[in-house]
Amino acid sequence: MLSRAAWSLMLKKSGHGRREMHSPEAPARGEGKMPPYANWYAERSYPMPEEPFCSDLNAEQQALKEKEKGSWTQLSHAEKVALYRLQYHQTFAEMNRRSNEWKTVMGCVFFFCGFTALLIWWQRVYVYPPKPITLTDEWKAQQLQRMLDMKVNPVHGLASHWDYEKKEWKK
Amino acid sequence: MASEVLAKHLMRGLLARCLRIHVVEAFLVSLGVAALYKFGVAEPRKKAYADFYKNYSPEKDFEEMKKVGIFRGIT
């Protein structure tokens, strides 16, 4: 959304409109483009599109457009709604409606996280070399014993949790 | 569209009022946090160290460590 506003600003500054970007001006230039790249597309961060939603008007719609040039108090409610619908694709309520897309997104995110976990598990089993001796249980026990003998951190830390009389961890 | 007259809203000084409230609130919150830290963390820590060193004897500690055999310079 941010990029659309920035892109449009860049085009305006360079003197081109969105329609004339790659011209020579060909008929029905905006056709075939889908939203959000169509010229009539609007969103909450870009509420005023370049082109009206309906550009090819039949006779009745053109008559209505002529009537619009006069005083608006003469337009009936249905006519005003019809004019709005000619100009804009959706109302703000319609364009800002929420959707369930987040569920799909989160589902795919979790799915691929799980898949990655499987890959990492395989890697742990088949790729990693054996542990260095300093990480074996025997070595770690000897290391811990030495730390307790040295009384590391006797006030708040490791040695403060060891009962030296009973030779066990304090409850 | 309504025909009755509404009371006039407060039109000025809104930011100043907001700031005043928030300044007072910030002051109180920071005082509270500082007091909590002092009495929740700093004082217990000071007490723990004081208790540890009350009956501490470095000679006794040294003898215990020497007996276990962690020193390399002496046995």
TrEMBL record, chain A:
Annotated transmembrane regions: 104-122
Pathway participation: Energy metabolism; oxidative phosphorylation
Alphabetic keyword roster: Membrane, Mitochondrion, Mitochondrion inner membrane, Transmembrane, Transmembrane helix
Presence of the UniProt keyword Mitochondrion in the record: yes
Entry membrane topology: Single-pass membrane protein
GO biological process: mitochondrial electron transport, cytochrome c to oxygen
Subcellular location: Mitochondrion inner membrane
InterPro entries for this protein: Cyt_c_oxidase_su4, Cyt_c_oxidase_su4_fam, Cyt_c_oxidase_su4_sf
Biased composition annotated in UniProt, kind: Basic and acidic residues: 17-32
Similarity field: Belongs to the cytochrome c oxidase IV family.
Protein name: Cytochrome c oxidase subunit 4
Organism: Sapajus apella (Brown-capped capuchin)
UniProtKB/TrEMBL annotation, chain B:
Subcellular location: Mitochondrion inner membrane
Topological type in the membrane: Single-pass membrane protein
Principal subcellular localisation of the protein: mitochondrion
Example of a GO biological process term: mitochondrial electron transport, cytochrome c to oxygen
Family matches, as InterPro entries: Cytochrome_c_oxidase_VIc (IPR051389), Cytochrome_c_oxidase_VIc/VIIs (IPR034884), Cytochrome_c_oxidase_VIc_sf (IPR037169)
Superkingdom of this protein's organism: Eukaryota
Pathways involved: Energy metabolism; oxidative phosphorylation
Family, as annotated: Belongs to the cytochrome c oxidase subunit 6c family.
Protein name per the record: Cytochrome c oxidase subunit 6C
Organism of origin: Sapajus apella (Brown-capped capuchin)
Gene name per UniProt: LOC116545773
